[in-house]
Amino acid sequence: MKRILLLLILLSFTFLHSQQNRLQGKWILDKIYYQNGNPLEINYPLYSTFIEYDFKGNNLEINNSKFKFSINGSIITTNTRKLNYKIENEYLIINESGSDKVYYFLKSTDFLKRYPEFEPQEITYADKTVFEANSIVKPEFNYSESFEEFIRKNIPSYSPTSATNNFFKAKFIVTKENKITDIQIVDGISKRFDAEFKTALFNSEKFLRNTSDKDLLVTQTFNFFKMFASLSNKEEVQICNFIQKGDKLYEKNKFNNAIINYEKLLSINIAAVTKERFGFNLNRAFINLGVSYLAVGNIPKACEAFMKVGDKTNFQVRNYLLNFCK
C-alpha cells in the first residue's frame, strides 16, 4: 500500500513538473472570445490589446507585473487570481475564475512563425546595421522590477521632473553580447536628467539579456504629460477640447456625434513634437474614431483612422485591421 501511495505521489509530482515545464517561457495573446464562442464587442477595451505571460520558474510576469504561482491540476494560482488553463493546438488557453472570457496565447516563437511581420526590421543607426526591437522581440530584463521602473528609480531627478509637462526620448543599442552602446538622447529634458538617464541605463546593463542573434535598437520614452496643464498654444487647446468632447459622446455610444468631434482632429496639421507629447491620447481618440465609424457601417473610414495609430504590428489596432481591413 505504501509503495502504491509513493508511486501515486511520484506520478503526481512528475505530471505537475511536466506541466510547469510546458508553461515556461513567453506567451503572447492572440485572441479573446466569450465562453460561448462569440467575439468581443468592437468597443470593448480589450478588443485589440497586448498581453504577455512570461513563466520563469515559479514566477509569472503579466505585462511586467510579477507574481508567484503554483499549479494544481488545471488551475494556475497566484496571490490575486485563479486561472483555469489547458494547452491545446499550440495555444495556452486561459479562463480566469469568475470571468466569461477565454484568452488564447501562443508561445512567442510560434507567434513569430505565424505572424512574421513581427520579425525585427533592419535599419541603419549610428552608421551601424541594427534591428528595431518591438513588443515581441526585445531584450529581457532579469530583475525584481521592470526595466522602466528600474530606470525611473535610478534617476534622482525623476520625481520632480514628473510634475512638469515634458517629453523624453532616447535610443540605444543592446548588442548580441548584452552591451549597451550608442546612446542617443533624441528629446532631452535637462543636462542633469539626461546624464542621470545614461547612468541609470548603464547600471541596468547587467540585468539585460538579448536572447536574439541581432543587435537590437531600443527606444525609451517618458511622457510627463498633464492634460490641460501648461498647454503651449491654441493648437494644443483645440486638440484637448476635441478629444474631451469626443470621449464623452463615445462613452455614451453616441457614435455619429463622437465622429463629428474626433474628425476635427484630422483638420489640424499636428506638429511632430505635439504628436509625441499627446501620443497616448491621440491614439486613443483615433481608435475611438475608428470604432465609431465601424458602428455606423463606414469600414473604409474606420481603416483610415486605425492606420493613423499604426499597422498590424501595433497591438492597439492590430485586431481591428486583421478583422476589418484585409
From TrEMBL:
Spell out the Gene3D superfamilies in the cross-references: Tetratricopeptide repeat domain
Looking up InterPro entries in the UniProt record yields: TPR-like_helical_dom_sf
Endpoints of the signal sequence: 1-18
Keyword terms: Signal
Superkingdom of origin organism: Bacteria
Q: Does the keyword Signal apply?
A: yes
Protein known as: Tetratricopeptide repeat protein
Q: Which organism is it from?
A: Kaistella solincola
